[in-house]
Amino acid sequence: METMTVYFGDPFWIAVLEQRHDGRVRAVRQVFGAEPTDAELYQYLLCHRTALLVRVERAAAVADDAPAPAPIRNPKRLARDAARAARRSRPTTAAQEAVKKDLELRVQTADQRGRQRREEHAERRRQVRRAKSRVRHRGR
Q1: 45 or 123: which leads in pLDDT
Q2: Positions of the region Disordered (predicted)?
Q3: pLDDT, mean of residues 51-74
Q4: Over 80: is that where the pLDDT of 92 sits?
Q5: Residue 66, pLDDT score
Q6: DSSP assignment of the chain, as one string?
């Protein structure tokens, strides 16, 4: 089950996509600038739904701290609870932990890619210098 929560995290609006499965939570966050309208969120999900779901699947899973689902209750009570949750509209602590792990993982992979890119660039520069040196040594 996927749930998307949009909240204001000063100074930006943030959307957290949570996926709950077998007592585990995976979550990713997307930072928006200004407050997104419902239409903008819908359009964003239409365009980026697959990429978000792939990111959620790759995110680290964390044990779910939410209680077991309650039995079916009165619809009026459910409406009040939904309104209260909408006013609160903060992701769960398990989702926050999953987002943090996902961010750490992405930072690590970005660091690895950057290090590899720098090493490749240094190797290319070394090869160019050696080629120039060979040309000078041959007297051309």
Answers
A1: 123
A2: 67-140
A3: 81
A4: no
A5: 65
A6: -EEEEEEEETTEEEEEEEEEETTEEEEEEEEESSPPPHHHHHHHHHHHHHHHHHHHHHSPPEE--SPPPPPP--HHHHHHHHHHHHHH----HHHHHHHHHHHHHHHHHHHHHHHHHHHHHHHHHHHHHHHHHHHHHHT-
> 46, 26 in Cβ contact below 8 A?
no
The pair of structure tokens assigned to 80 is 């009040």
CA dihedral 23, 29, 34, 37 (to 10 degrees): -40
Pairwise CA distance, residues 22 & 64, whole Å: 9
The backbone region for 23, taken as left when phi is positive above 0, alpha when psi lies in -120 to 50, beta otherwise, is left
For the segment 14-23, what is each residue's pLDDT rounded down to a tens digit? 888 888 888 8
